[in-house]
Amino acid sequence: MNLAVVVLAAGQGTRMKSQVPKVLHPVLGRPMIRYVIDTLNRLKPDRKIIVINPLHDPVCNYLSGFDCEIAVQKKLLGTADALRSAFSLLHGFEGTVLVVNGDTPLISPVTLKKFLTRHHRSGSDISVLSFNAGDPSYYGRIIRNNSGSACMIVEEKDLSAGQKAIREVNSGVYAMKHNVEGLLGKIKKNPKKKEYYLTDILALASKRGLKSDVINIGLEEEFHGVNTMADLLAAQRLIQKGLINKLMKKGVRFLNPDSVIVHPDVRIAPDSVIYPSVCLEGRTVIGRSSKIFQGVRIVDSRIGRGVSVLDNSLIEGSRVDDESSVGPFARLRPDSIIGKNVKIGNFVEIKNSRILEGTKAGHLSYIGDATIGRNVNIGAGTITCNYDGVKKHRTVIGDEVFVGSDTQLIAPVRVGKRAFIAAGSTITEDVSANALAISRAGQKEIAGWSHKKFKKDGKE
Ligand code: UD1
Ligand code: CA
């Protein structure tokens, strides 16, 4: 059976009170709609149509990266009208049309597959997926007749007092035969909201003698709809909990999982420990037995085995190899490659630099556009002066070099293997291997000077 999936995503998201189109609001770094698309892809549909708002260019741009068709709903006249826009692309299509809301990012493909199987088995013209809600007030209610079969869906605003207690609700997922399209045009405007409600299709179908069905197989959590910022947070928490449980099953230890953010593409090897308030984002990978301490944020970076990233450090687009230690309060900016057994200490900033095995930069340094060899000591306060106001220049430091504290390396500059740089030097010329470079004014001493000053100031 051919399958077309339709995602209704044109809504303004008024209740979000945000300029950002609702379906682009991120849940753990990914727009909400991406979760829906990924889930639908698991059903291997023949057609995938997303209904969008004509004013939402960012949604259109985002979707251009996906294999889907776009239907523009010219005026936002409700969910039935949105589905009609999708049907305008489906002329000649024969098969099942599965409709999903764009604002329910937690739906599982397993439930959708089950739903489709039940829909096909029953031979219904239209099926609605329902679930029992703890608090049904956010959803349309399923009204069943005396014989127990469902006959209509009523939105919260239109409920009678007696219907309010009903807990079976509409998930917003529908399966229908392609030929129910004609029914959509027959739906009347809801008198209160002046919108065409897709939910009315159920009552209309039974009136016309079509076979309809409400299939109650949903879990409340997976149909959690995002209409407000609070709903968005709740969705994020639910997704996060699932991801962290999976990681814990694989042997990752979290000290306070409720306080951390871990994006869906992050991978963490067993025996790693994640302290409170850590954010692991993008495509970050953490190797075995590493420790990520409190308040660390790591974005799109690879951390090796046995690494410690100490408190309050930020690592972006970088690599840290096995057994190294970074932080506390360190910053690795993009394209920093930190070799094995390296120590990057407090208040050290590194950018676009390569630091080889065994090197130490323990305190208060800026290392930008540099290549630093093995077992180098970078003294406290060392600065690579890489920018001349127009261009960036490189600093290259050989193996086993000793850079004394408070050294400025004016790039472009090269320091040969095993050279020593005396503390407080400003290095403007290349330094040869094995040499000592010292560039600081010689120290003078004027004997008894302060004695005279005290006298002059009348303090003696
Ligand atoms: C809708 C259902 C409700 C169901 C709930 C499940 C209707 C009338 N109500 O309510 O029964 O319990 O979903 O989450 O269908 N959209 C468009 N164009 C429009 C209007 C909406 O594309 O003109 C899209 C929205 O972007 C959204 C989806 O349709 O993704 C649902 O719209 P929304 O306004 O969120 O409906 P709910 O009030 O949540
Ligand atoms: Ca909704």
CATH C-level name of the largest domain = Alpha Beta
- In the sheet with the most strands, the strands line up as 12-15-18-21-24-27-30-33-36-39-41
Summarize model confidence as the mean pLDDT: 96
The overall strand count is 41
Bound compounds, each kind once, are:
uridine-diphosphate-N-acetylglucosamine, calcium ion
Q: Gyration radius, to the nearest Å? A: 32 Å
Question: How is the topology of this model organized?
Answer:
Blueprint: E1 3-8, E2 26-27, E3 30-31, H1 32-41, E4 47-52, H2 57-63, E5 69-72, H3 79-87, E6 96-101, H4 109-122, E7 126-132, E8 141-144, E9 150-154, E10 168-177, H5 181-184, H6 201-207, E11 212-216, H7 229-249, E12 253-254, E13 261-262, E14 267-268, E15 273-274, E16 279-281, E17 285-286, E18 291-292, E19 297-299, E20 302-303, E21 308-309, E22 314-316, E23 319-320, E24 325-326, E25 331-332, E26 337-338, E27 343-346, E28 349-351, E29 354-355, E30 360-363, E31 366-368, E32 370-372, E33 377-378, E34 383-385, E35 395-397, E36 402-403, E37 408-410, E38 413-415, E39 420-421, E40 426-427, E41 436-437, H8 449-456
Structural features, described:
- 17% of the residues lie in helices and 28% in strands.
- By secondary structure, the protein is of the alpha/beta class.
- It folds into two domains: 3-223, Spore Coat Polysaccharide Biosynthesis Protein SpsA, Chain A; 250-437, UDP N-Acetylglucosamine Acyltransferase, domain 1 (3 Solenoid), CATH 2.160.10.
- The longest helix is centred in the middle third of the chain and has 21 residues, at 229-249.
- The model has no long low-confidence stretch (mean pLDDT 96).
- Calcium ion binds at residues 101, 103, 225, 227.
